[in-house]
Amino acid sequence: MFNVNDLHGKNVFVEKEVVDKEVSAVGEVNAANIATTVSAAAIITNDEITLAQALVKIKTSKPKAKGVVIQKASESITTTTTTISLKKSQDKGKAIMIEELMKPKKKDQIRLDEEADLKLQAELQAKFDEEERIAKEKAQKEQEAIIALIKEWDDIQAKIDFDYQLAQRLQTEEQEKLTIEEKATLFKELLEKRTKHFAAKAAKEKRNKP
């Protein structure tokens, strides 16, 4: 039997020879039948056979390329998901770190605020104490000035009283009999009496002072 694979890429006209032999043997086929048979026979090459086999393989094979594309898409999606998860994890870690850093800062800020408040209170208290001290010193000086003024006034008043009493006595008949020494002695007695009186009064006021 004739095998097509034995052609090895050469043009073969076997069909024509076979037809000629069949015509001579039978003797009933005319020239028109021979031409029709020859025209119906194809010139077969090795390339045409290879192409036909390739077409058959393509039709019967599975679409592996499509499966590969799907697999790549799946791997891409998986990688993207992993990246997002890592990013979220990193963001979470950063948030925890920021929160941990903020806690000491908040405590330090509270401590600094408390120290600032205490310092401000101390400054205000010191200022208040200084103002109070100045006010007390001023009041003390004013009091001393008043006391000195009163004493001075008392001395003046005592002298006035003495002069008045002396004038009354001088108006008497004995005015001519009083010597200078007697007048001086009398004035001294009146002055001492007046001084003792106001000294006792000032001491009493000082004891009654709160």
Mean pLDDT over the residues: 65
Separation, N- and C-terminal Cα atoms:
152 Å
Give the ordered list of helices and strands: HHHHH
Total tally of structural domains: 2
- Estimate what percentage of residues fall within beta strands: under 5%
Structural class, by secondary structure, is mainly alpha
Helix content: over 70%
Sheet with the most strands? none
Instruction: State the low-pLDDT regions, or none.
Output: 1-45, 64-86
Q: Which shape, going by the Cα principal axes?
A: rod-shaped
Tally the beta strands: 0
Number of helical stretches of at least 4 residues: 5
* C-alpha Rg (nearest Å): 72 Å
Structure report:
This protein is an all-alpha fold and 210 residues long. The protein has two domains: 4-61, no CATH class; 79-208, no CATH class. 83% of the residues lie in helices and 0% in strands. It is built from five helices and no strands. It has helices spanning 14-26, 31-40, 46-60, 64-170, 180-208. It is rod-shaped. It starts with 13 loop residues before the first helix and ends with a helix. Residues 1-45 and 64-86 have low confidence and may be disordered.
Keywords:
rod-shaped; mainly alpha; about 210 residues; disordered N terminus; 2 domains
Secondary-structure map with pairings?
Blueprint: H1 14-26, H2 31-40, H3 46-60, H4 64-170, H5 180-208
Give me a quick take on this structure.
It is rod-shaped and about 180 Å long. 83% of the residues lie in helices and 0% in strands. The chain is mainly alpha-helical and 210 residues long.
